[in-house]
Amino acid sequence: MSNTKPDFGKKFMALVKGNPIAVLLVLAAVIVGFRVPNFASWANFGNLMSNTAVRFLIALGVSGCLITKGTDLSAGRQVGFAACLAGILCQRGDYTGRLWKNVPEMNIFFVFIIVVLVGLVFGLVNGLIVTKLHVPPFIATLGTQTIIYGIALVISDAQPIGGFQKIYTKLITGRIGNTRGFHLPYLLFVALLFGLLFWFIYNKTRHGKYMYAIGGNEVAAEVSGVNTTATLIRIYTTAGVMYAIAGYLLAAKSGGASASMGTGYELEAIAGCTIGGVSTTGGIGTVPGILVGVLVFELLKIILQFLNVNPYYNYVVQGLVIVIAVALDIRKYIAKK
Amino acid sequence: MSEYVLEMRDVCKSFPGVKALDHVQLKLRPGKVHALMGENGAGKSTLMKCMFGIYKMDQGQVFIDGQPVQIKDPMDALNKGIAMVHQELQPIPARTVGENIFLGRYPMKKALGCIPIVDHKKMYADTAELLKKVRMNFDPKQKVGDLSVSQMQSVEIAKAVSANCRVLILDEPTSSLTANEVEALFRIVEDLKAEGVAIVYISHKMDEILRIGDEVTIMRDGQYIGTWPASEMTTDDIITKMVGRELTNLYPPRNNVPGEVVFQVEDFTSINPKSFRHVNFELRKGEILGVGGLVGAQRTELMEGLFGIRSHSAGKITYKGRELKINRPKDAIDQGIAMLTEDRRGSGIMGVLSVADNISVSSLDKYLDMGISINSKKVEQLVQDNVRKMNIKTPSSKTQIKSLSGGNQQKVLVGRWLANDPDVLILDEPTRGIDVGAKYEIYCIIEELAREGKSIIMISSEMSELIGMSDRIMVMCDGRVTGFVKGSEATQESIMALATQFE
Q1: In DSSP terms, which residues pair with B122 in a beta bridge?
Q2: Mutant choice from B46, B304, B361 vs A, greatest count of A C-beta within 10 A
Q3: How far, in whole angstroms, is CA A87 from its chain's centroid?
Q4: Cα separation of B381 and A183, whole Å?
Q5: What is the least distance, in Å, from the CA of B91 to any CA of chain A?
Q6: What is the pLDDT of residues B7-64, one digit of tens each?
Q7: What are phi and psi of B485, to 5 degrees?
Q8: Chain B residues with CB-CB distance to A216 below 8 A
């Protein structure tokens, strides 16, 4: 195994060249870590991991849509809806502000299943609109985004939702280790589990190969016997399930929910994917790449927070990073001519 | 004054891993047709793209009228009098003929004395004038998307003429034209020659080169082999120099024996009244059925209808005694039918995906472990088998297919279908845009498949290919089947007579 080392070096350099933004941000994090107290702390690290975990699930969901040259603008609202639904159903039986008073206190795993099923239906609807009605994904999900927000407002009565069962919040914000020292949040394991699952789906299953084929050339895929309609429906449905899971986790993580939860998450997820190398022209994107993209984006947010940047500027910086990431991605293809 | 209008000297161009051009030269005389020949991947298109400013050359010089020049981009090339009609036409289908021709240099006028606006009146008048010059009489305001391929090509040539070009590059201009249209094109070429335009003519068709070419430059594997007067060359000379070896036969010997009828089509009719209608034919085991006709005869549409890419309103398909219901390609594939489509880039390759992904996409069911996980070793085995069997030139199975040459892409696509082990194979223009060597290899594969008992339907616009490869030839005209000819008895005239039987 004498040749593994230079190989690794080469691969490392390729990684640096391929992800200039990621490398810059990691460098920035190191610098901030040395200069700002508390940045390089276990608490902050755990926080970063929990945040990244939820965003990663959403990004995994939307990645299939992006790889097949589509998009899903309803992601954020679906997360918000799932958070509301999970929140309402997980309220304590003795909580005075309960929204649905005639529903008994429910088992939180049962709630999980309900939330996932509703997410599945939303995703399925998106998939059907895109494939059967041939509405472009951008417009289709723009429409469902608004519809789902409306439904979330209706079921939550536009009120903040609190008073969750202890077990719900405790389980999801739980961790291995001590908050003050080294610890690994449970959410991290959830994210890793789904990361592995998606890696397997994308690389080892027919569905994954068909997804890349559709992104590469949808007509050719159809002609080659790929059931493009079924594949796309599966992709949008899976996305809905992922948003539902993310919403369920997010409500518990935040200890409360409201219809406005998840606003703009679709853009963060798309940004994370793009920074992580999911190509806007279709057919390209890997799970490790998406993880790096999301992590880097979360890192950026935490850095800005620790540098005490006016939160309003955060949007400006995040937007710039998205544009630069896509511009750099496109450059790779231009340079090949 | 130099005797050459344009001269390229010592041109080199490398792509990652490939030396596409290796000290190549090209000298064009005014008023002459200069044929540029070589197998696919020999570097012809790359050289032309360097001339036209699409690629930057790594080394070498370009001279116009003996003066060294730099060509920065296609706009610069056009300004210097170089125009190019691309192998794959790139019009804007939703816009009119006039707008396509004057794209980027619309004639302008001032509205209200100061606001610049497009002068549509002048644009369409000029377009009409140009169309007359290329002997085409269609409406300048017609949408380009409604034109036939040959008409689109005329539009492209008109565009080049309108730029007052001194050098015109025609990249495989006749690959999708019928005999009549080729004649029309040659008349335009003669007109341009008379005006002193130097024409670079890229084609794989020997008879054309020998007929209209004045000089021939031959390239092989990115290298310059030489330039000769066309009158001193024979087809055999050219082929030998192109492939660097003797090529004795154009078509392989045929040993396939057609057996019993396996595939039957009755009264097959499109949902589009202008497309194929009341088509009846049968196909035998081990038979090669050629399908001939002019462009627009609806041959592709018929085959795509049988394969489920297009819809039909009536008709019956019987396969081995069973009636088939085909509504989408998957239905046909499940029954053991395969179709290599005509438009390699549009409906064949998935450009950004690897050779392995491209070759395995329609047969993934075969490489599953436990019904779910794809075994990449089996896929790799498939790729390696095909690479060996069909002599596919690719750096690795992970290479993006878009970086292979056209012939090698086509072989990958053939491999994709063979991986399914189909019984009926529909091939739509299987050798279009493919060099002589690769063509022969593909013919051999077709013959071998027929010998194994597979039934082949082959659409071709090349008469000699139809006659040389088919057991029977079905000829279509304007959506109808006008007749069948035995391959051994077929002549160009007999096929042409059937192909022009308009109602």
Answers
A1: none
A2: B361
A3: 19
A4: 46
A5: 20
A6: 999 999 987 656 789 899 999 999 999 999 887 667 888 899 899 888 888 999 999 9
A7: -130, 140
A8: 350-353, 357
Nearest to A277 by CA among A226, A329, A204: A329
Q: What is the pLDDT of residue B180?
A: 76
Tell me the one-letter amino acid at A199: W
User: In the A/B pair of chains, how many CB contacts fall below 8 A?
Assistant: 84
Our CA-based measurement puts residue B411 at a distance from the nearest CA of chain A, in whole angstroms, of 15
How many angstroms separate the CA atoms of A283 and B370, rounded?
26
Q: What is the ipTM of this complex?
A: 0.81
- Which one of B352, B364, B368 has the shortest CB-CB distance to A284? B352
pLDDT at residue B65 tops 50 = yes
Nearest to A209 among B330, B333, B361 (CB): B361
**Are B492 and B463 a contacting pair, CB within 8 Å?**
yes
Q: What is the pLDDT of residue A3?
A: 44
For the beta carbon of residue B457, count every other beta carbon within 10 angstroms.
Answer: 25
CA distance A164 to A167: 8
Nearest CA in chain A to B376: A204
Residue B476: beta bridge partners?
B293, B481
Choose among B334, B374, B416: nearest Cβ to A224.
Answer: B416
Residue contact A225–B334, C-beta within 8 A: yes
Q: Give the C-alpha separation, B372 to A216, whole Å.
A: 22
Distances (CA, A) of B206 to B29, B209, B223, B375, B410: 21, 5, 20, 46, 22
Contact (Cβ atoms closer than 8 angstroms) between residue B401 and residue B355:
yes
Give the integer Cα–Cα distance in Å for B174 and B208.
Answer: 9
Task: In whole angstroms, give the CA distance from residue A80 to residue A98.
Answer: 19
CA distance A203 to A196: 10
Q: What is the pLDDT of residues B220-278, one digit of tens each?
A: 878 899 999 988 888 878 877 877 655 556 788 888 889 999 999 999 999 988 889 99
Query: Does A281 sit within 8 Å of B372, measured CB to CB?
Result: no
CB contact under 8 A, B350 and A283: yes
A226 CB neighbours in chain B (<8 A) are 330, 361-362
Tokens describing residue A299: 């890192």
DSSP three-state, residue B39: coil
Question: Does B353 reach chain A within 8 Å, measured CB to CB?
Answer: yes
Q: What is the pLDDT of residue A337?
A: 45
Say whether residue A213 is in contact with chain B using an 8 A CB cutoff. yes
Q: Is A219 on the interface with B (CB under 8 A)?
A: yes
pLDDT digits (tens, 9 = 90+) for B171-187: 878 766 777 778 888 88
Splitting chain A (337 residues) into consecutive groups of 10 residues, what average pLDDT does each group show?
A: 56 72 80 81 87 96 96 96 95 86 89 97 97 96 96 93 91 82 89 96 94 94 92 97 97 93 91 87 91 90 86 86 79 58
Please indicate if any CB of chain A lies within 8 Å of the CB of B415: no
Specify whether the backbone of B146 is left (phi greater than 0), alpha (psi in -120 to 50) or beta.
alpha
CB of A334 within 8 Å of a chain B CB? The answer is no
